[in-house]
Specification:
The chain has 26 helices and 22 strands. It is of the alpha/beta class. The chain has four domains: 1-46 and 145-182, no CATH class; 50-144, Beta Barrel (OB fold (Dihydrolipoamide Acetyltransferase, E2P)); 256-285 and 302-425, Rossmann fold (3-Layer(aba) Sandwich), CATH 3.40.50; 457-615, P-loop containing nucleotide triphosphate hydrolases (Rossmann fold), CATH 3.40.50. The strands form four sheets. Strands 6-7-4-3-2-5-8 form a seven-stranded mixed beta sheet. Strands 12-13-11-14-15-10-16 form a seven-stranded parallel beta sheet, sandwiched between helices. Helix 10 (213-245) packs across helix 25, helix 11 packs antiparallel against helix 13 (303-316) and helix 17 packs across helix 25 (655-671). The longest helix has 33 residues, at 213-245. The radius of gyration is 31 Å and the shape is globular. The protein binds adenosine-5'-diphosphate (ADP) and magnesium ion.
């Protein structure tokens, strides 16, 4: 039976090679199984029949039954059409076709009763239906039908080859008949029983041909349950295997360096969230099991400090630590921050980036190997093959979603005994998404900002109100603040984007002329040296305005900059806007974030801007982002790559179910870590089938 589902779709009656090729290229359907798991996107209630007298042009799709009383053609040229008068006892309407007249008149005609389905419209005061679905009443009685008629997404190309939604439904019916409506179970009987799930065959039948809304709901639940359950089971099994397989370096001492830093150098009291997270990390580091922890915290919540203190614990125990940042600017900033926090302490720290000179690289290589270097900070350069550590004990990955899976895997392979890993992300991820993307990691959350921060005020202006914004910038600069002006950068049209930035620069430099004002510019096409010069000008307070693309998105910390103007804000995603906004509000003054947009906004763009002006809470924004955009679209997740397609579950809407199946998966792995019990044989088999090809992805962090 398993093999039957692997049959190439070509062999299904009604398909054949040409259609098989199309189904494959357009919808990714190549086997019986793929077709069976091609789920409808909506259902239309076909239980109700309208009477012709009841029809009005603003009704949605309706279903009527009656007879064709005559055909005639009307109009000429492109407007030429075939019209059929269609009647029941209560009246007559016109059915209209602009093409396929010959086929229609050859197939349908006066006599039999037909069922017609379509959207009523009106022309010259007469009700009509253009291009209706039409079928002999007798025929509908023969085929598998259901009260709720499933509709499938299809494409123009498919429709041109007679693969409409209805045709797909027919193929599925054929397939279900062929396999006799039975399918081997994919979940153990005890789970189906305990959680009262529909059995697979029934669920698949009902998702395509639901007899009533109740059974459809149960079918959807069963299929979502299974989809999410296996993802969680795989993650939890992986996590459990890892903790049994790898010994972690034991960092048992909190020693001299940590204490010196904590009692002498630390310029402020840790927030209670930072303290809690440090406790969690210290516990991991001392446990003898390799740490794999995700540290989430909103922008400005003080993750750098947590990173540094964790590294000092590694150093106190004789190990090296490194931080990998996504951009050179950010790596440099970490380096400067850390060097200044460690002032007067005997800890050696070096910076390695793409632009580090050869002599420095040599020096770093040497000191890594002879273990005299304690902390290395850098970009991707850190994972180049020629960078070898003497005894790497802790790896910190900052802003993790910018690193691809493969890059993280390389870092992992740097050592035969894997180092402890702390992944930091400043893009808060909704809990449910985190459970799925990082489900094999433990999670720590800094859910508190350092005291004394005044929330950033966010406002929205249309481009037609630009002058107001310039006026405001001027006022703030007079008061001694600095201003960021950010332009979007969208990969597909980089050239155009730079033109936006250049136009903006023209305008702003005219309005803010030298010598009174100084403006600096930063974008991705500059050499690192020039970029650094520009940043320095702004950081040192010499430039009043920094015009930039999103390169400043992460990590740039300039407390005196209290105004952030975001141009074309409608082109940014929510989490990106939130990241950008996090660049201001780091000082003691009230900070402002000004979102500029075109005068016409799409519904989604305006919803995003609303969320931004309403909320400062990164977690809330992340939730909204997930709801508005859908998880496949969330910035970053695409790169880090959800390694699977969800066919039916929705990470945004099925949060409760995710938490629920995760618990179930945890219980199972706890009682049977290797899935050796007979009752779990199906689980083992399914995991192998689903994840064996892709297994390396979870090996990443
Ligand atoms: P993140 O990386 O989480 O966005 P940072 O680590 O850059 O945040 O910290 C933001 C700012 O807050 C820095 O200027 C840092 O020195 C400061 N900071 C961190 N922790 C505290 C604290 N407990 N009290 C006061 N200021 C803090
Ligand atoms: Mg940071």
């Amino acid at each position: 039976m398993q093999d039957l589902l692997e049959t190439n779709i070509t062999y299904l009656p009604g398909v054949g090679p040409r259609r098989a090729e199309l189904l494959n290229s357009e919808l990714n359907i190549s086997t019986y199984r793929d077709l069976l798991y091609y789920f409808p996107y909506k259902y239309i209630d076909r239980t109700r029949f309208y009477r012709i007298a009841e029809l009005e042009p603003d009704l949605p799709h309706v279903q009527i039954r009656g007879h064709i009383t005559g055909f005639y053609s009307e109009g000429g040229g492109r407007g030429k059409r075939l019209v059929a008068d269609f009647s029941d006892d209560t009246g007559t309407i016109r059915l209209i076709w602009f093409r396929g007249a010959r086929w229609i008149t050859g197939t349908y005609g006066p006599g039999p009763e037909y069922i017609v389905f379509g959207k009523p419209g009106v022309f010259n005061g007469q009700i009509n239906i253009i291009h209706p679905e039409i079928e002999a009443a007798e025929k509908t009685a023969e085929r598998i039908t259901s009260a709720l008629q499933a509709h499938y997404s299809t494409t123009e190309k498919l429709k041109n080859h007679f693969l409409s939604s209805k045709a797909i439904s027919k193929l599925i019916a054929t397939l279900l008949q062929k396999i006799n409506f039975t399918l081997p179970e994919t979940l153990p009987g005890y789970i189906i029983g305990k959680y009262n799930l529909l059995e697979l065959g029934k669920a698949l039948y009902s998702i395509h041909f639901p007899q009533d809304p109740g059974i459809l709901e149960k079918a959807r639940y069963r299929l979502k349950f299974e989809e999410l359950f296996y993802i969680q089971l795989n993650l939890i099994r992986f996590k459990s295997n890892r903790s049994r397989k790898y010994r972690g370096f034991v960092f048992s001492n909190v020693g001299e360096k940590f204490n010196t830093f904590y009692f002498r150098n630390l310029p402020f009291e840790l927030t209670s969230a930072q303290k809690r997270v440090m406790k969690e990390i210290r516990k991991d580091l001392g446990s003898g099991i390799q740490m794999n922890r995700l540290l989430q915290g909103d922008v400005g919540s003080g993750k750098t400090l947590v990173a540094l203190m964790s590294m000092l614990i590694a150093v106190d125990n004789g190990y090296q630590a490194c931080i990998m940042a996504p951009t050179e600017i950010l790596a440099k900033q970490h380096y400067q921050t850390i060097v200044s926090l460690l002032r007067d302490m005997d800890v050696s720290v070096k910076l390695l980036t793409g632009s580090s000179a050869g002599s420095l690289r040599k020096e770093i290589s040497r000191s890594l190997l002879d273990k005299s270097l304690n902390i290395l900070i850098g970009t991707h350069a850190l994972i180049e093959d020629n960078v070898q550590f003497g005894n790497l004990g802790l790896v910190i990955i900052d802003e993790q979603h910018r690193f691809g899976v493969e890059q993280r895997a390389r870092l992992w392979r740097k050592s035969s005994n894997p180092p402890h890993v702390l992944v930091m992300t400043a893009t808060p991820i909704p809990r449910t998404l985190a459970m799925t993307l990082y489900g094999d990691l433990d999670v720590s959350v800094i859910d508190e900002l350092p005291p004394g921060r005044i929330p950033v005020r966010t406002m929205h202006f249309f481009d037609s109100e630009k002058n107001k914004v310039y006026g405001f910038m001027k006022k703030k600069i007079e008061e001694g603040s600095q201003v960021f002006v950010v332009y979007p950068l969208i990969r597909e049209s980089e050239k155009m984007d730079y033109r936006d930035l250049e136009d903006g620069w023209d305008t702003i430099s005219r309005l803010f002329p030298p010598p009174r004002y100084c403006i600096s510019v930063v974008h991705g096409q500059m050499t690192p040296a020039i970029k650094e010069e520009s940043m320095k000008l702004f950081r040192e307070g010499k430039a009043h305005i920094l015009i930039a693309t999103t390169v400043i998105e992460v990590g740039v910390d300039i407390p005196n900059a209290s105004v952030m103007v975001i141009e074309s804000a409608e082109r940014f995603g929510l989490s990106q806007l939130h990241q950008l906004r996090g660049r201001v509000g780091r000082g003691s003054d009230q900070a402002y974030c000004i979102l500029m947009s075109g005068d016409k906004l799409s519904k989604e763009a305006s919803a995003r801007i609303d969320v931004m002006t309403r909320s400062n809470d990164g977690f809330e924004i992340a939730e909204q982002d997930l709801l508005l955009r859908g998880p496949g679209d969330i910035e970053g997740t695409m790169q880090s790559g959800i390694p699977f397609d969800l066919r039916i579950a929705d990470l945004g809407k099925d949060g409760q179910l995710i938490a629920w199946v995760r618990n179930i998966a945890e219980e199972i792995i706890e009682s049977d870590p290797l899935l050796e019990k007979d009752s779990n044989a199906i689980l083992k088999h399914m995991l192998k089938k689903m994840f064996s090809k892709k297994q390396s992805w979870s090996n990443i962090s």
